[in-house]
Every structure is written in C-alpha cells, then in structure tokens.
Amino acid sequence: MRALLFVILGLAVGAMGATFALSALRQGTPFHDGVMAVMQHHMGALRANVRAKQCDAKVSAERLARLRLTAGDIREAFPDMDAGFARAGATLDAALDAAVAAAPASCDGLAVALKPVGDACQSCHQQYR
Ligand code: HEC
C-alpha cells in the first residue's frame, strides 16, 4: 500500500515537472516566432536555389508544400489579431496555393511563383509587424 502511494506520488511529481519544462520551452521559443522562422527558412532556401540556378521541380514542389503548410498555422500562432490580419494571411495562402499549383520546373518559373508570395509576406509585415 505504502509502495503504491510512492509510485503515485512519483508519477504526480513527474507530470508536474514535465508541465513546467514544456511551458518553459514554449516561452523560450514562442509559437509565432517559430512559424515565421520556418517560413523564412523555406523562402530563403528557394531564393538561394534561384540564385544558384538549381531549380529542380521536385525540390521546389516539396519546399513550397512545406511553406504552404506552415502558412496554415499563422492564424493559430496569432490568435488575437483583427480581420485585416486574417485577410493578409489568406492572401499568403492564396499566393502559395497558386505557387504549388504552378509546380515551377525552371528557375524563371520559380522566381515568378515566389514573387506574389514575397509580396504577401511583406504587405502583412508593413501593417502588423
Ligand atoms: C498575416 C500576417 C503575416 C504574414 C502573411 C507573414 N508574416 Fe512574418 N510576421 C508577422 C508578424 C505580426 C510578425 C512579428 C511577430 C513577432 O514580433 O513576434 C512577423 C515576423 C516575422 C519574422 C521575424 C520573426 C522574429 O523572430 O521576430 C520573420 C523572419 C517573418 N515574419 C517571415 C515571414 C515570411 C518569410 C513570410 C511569408 C512567407 C511572412 N513572414 C508572412 C506577420 C506576418
């Protein structure tokens, strides 16, 4: 009986520790910074590919798809924003949907597809960052 109590106590303390650790982690890397950092990473990599003239269709498609998925997290990452912010997010979603659908197979095509995406990032930043 006593041993069982200790096991239960141990589990409770462990769960509390895990909760504290998780919330500390979340404060260290806020979700909204993470979402933006991941998008920045993929945009940077795609632009570097254009500059290096290495625009493999499959590589671009994969990266654009990951960028699109991350953009889908913007609204959850910024829960307290107004309707204009949601529209700016939707503009980015639409630009990325178009880029994914275009499936660019050349560097010129990729640059053309990225232009409205970059514009969508910038226009939201001008207003809300
Ligand atoms: C709907 C609005 C919106 C869109 C669209 C948007 N951002 Fe942001 N972004 C913000 C806001 C707001 C901040 C400031 C957040 C903060 O200070 O933590 C920000 C901050 C950033 C930062 C700085 C992050 C940091 O740690 O301070 C980067 C990098 C970034 N965005 C990249 C991008 C890229 C790349 C895109 C397009 C693919 C994009 N953003 C699209 C709203 C947006």
Summarize the structure.
With 129 residues, this protein is mostly helical. The protein has a single domain, classed as Cytochrome c/b562 (Four Helix Bundle (Hemerythrin (Met), subunit A), Up-down Bundle), CATH 1.20.120.
* Small molecules (ligands, ions, cofactors) in the structure: heme C
Largest sheet: none
Rg, Å, rounded: 21 Å
What is the CATH level 1 assignment? Answer: Mainly Alpha
Second CATH tier, the architecture? Up-down Bundle
Describe the structure.
With 129 residues, the protein is mostly helical. It has a single domain (30-128), classed as Up-down Bundle (Four Helix Bundle (Hemerythrin (Met), subunit A)). It is 84% helix and 0% strand. It is built from six helices and no strands. 17% of the residues are buried. The mean pLDDT is 89. The structure holds heme C. Residues 32-33, 36-37, 39-40, 43, 74, 85, 88-89, 92, 117, 120-121, 124-125, 128-129 line the site of heme C.
